[in-house]
Specification:
Layout (H helix, E strand, L loop, with lengths): L67 H13 L8 H9 L4 H15 L4 H29 L4 H6 L30 H17 L6 E4 L6 E4 L3 H13 L5 H21 L6
Antiparallel strand pairs: 1-2
Helix pairs in contact: 2-7, 3-4, 4-6, 4-8, 6-7, 6-8, 7-8
Length: 274
């Protein structure tokens, strides 16, 4: 049934040189070799599993370059998202923790949570089908969203500030994000699309009450415990700003994509049977 679904296709993101256009991380122009392109760009054109299309839940898009809202987000990531930025102890903890790959970390945590709550094998299978199908459709939507808006990353925006037409932004041609800028557009955040989907599924499955849910790195060196599943996407939204790789609206709208997809999947797939 999935034959010819677009997996491993030829689609790649398109570089542009107008204000706001995405450019590869190590270049401010499209003609300069700039390292590897996104090997997973094809995800944008894969047929979703449950949602109607990759465009069904796309975001409303990034802020207008000349707006006060854009300037506020620009100045936030410029201040907090550089390697030498001064972050509070909690900001630094969030910055460090959410560099771990989300899907692997969330799946491991939900295996432990499901077992601790006595879910049967069939119940666990249904839970993980809901988690991973929602996560998959959220990421397909997210990569379609990236292709639709093709918006520049903070590193490009700050280096080319003189192009944005905004009097409230001040550029820095040497500014670098605290973690390496990924080779694909800013809007929306894939990490937050996945997080929004997974944590919305969890709230729909287990309820929105106290959860006492623990995330842990694969090495066991770092862990964080949350009172509610929804508290996690608050941290992942902040984390991608502190890491310097997203404007806040890309994170917030990514989390919304994930939640919207999860609610759609919850109502239309994997229903209980007599």
């Amino acid at each position: 049934m999935r034959a010819g679904d677009g997996r491993w296709g030829a689609f790649r993101f398109t570089c542009g040189e107008d204000p706001g256009d995405w450019r590869p991380a190590t270049s401010t122009v499209c003609t300069t070799p700039s390292g590897p392109s996104d090997p997973f760009a094809w995800v944008a054109k894969v047929d979703p599993f449950v949602v109607q299309s990759g465009l069904q839940f796309v975001s409303k898009g990034p802020r207008e370059l000349t707006s006060g809202a854009y300037a506020k987000e620009y100045n936030e990531v410029k201040t907090l998202g550089a390697p030498d930025s001064v972050r509070s102890a909690e900001q630094q903890a969030v910055y460090e923790f959410f560099q771990a790959p989300p899907i692997e970390m969330y799946n491991r945590a939900f295996r432990e949570y499901a077992a601790a709550h006595g879910l049967t094998l069939a119940e666990q299978a249904r839970l993980f089908a809901k988690l991973t199908i929602s996560g998959g459709d959220a990421l397909i939507t997210c990569w379609e969203d990236k292709a639709l808006w093709s918006f520049w990353r903070p590193q490009t925006a700050i280096r080319l500030e003189d192009e944005d037409g905004n009097s409230k932004t001040v550029g820095d041609p040497d500014w670098t994000s605290a973690v390496p800028t990924p080779p694909y557009p800013d809007h929306s955040s894939g990490y937050n699309c996945a997080t929004g989907a997974y944590m919305e599924v969890a709230e729909l499955y287990f309820g929105s009450g106290p959860a006492n849910f623990t995330l842990e790195h694969a090495t066991g060196a770092l862990s964080r415990t949350y009172a509610h599943f929804r508290d996690i996407w608050d941290d992942t939204i902040d984390a991608r700003v502190y890491q310097g790789i997203h404007f806040r609206s890309a994170d917030e709208q990514g989390a919304k994509i994930g939640r919207d997809v999860a609610r759609w999947v919850d109502k239309r797939a994997l229903q209980p049977m007599n």
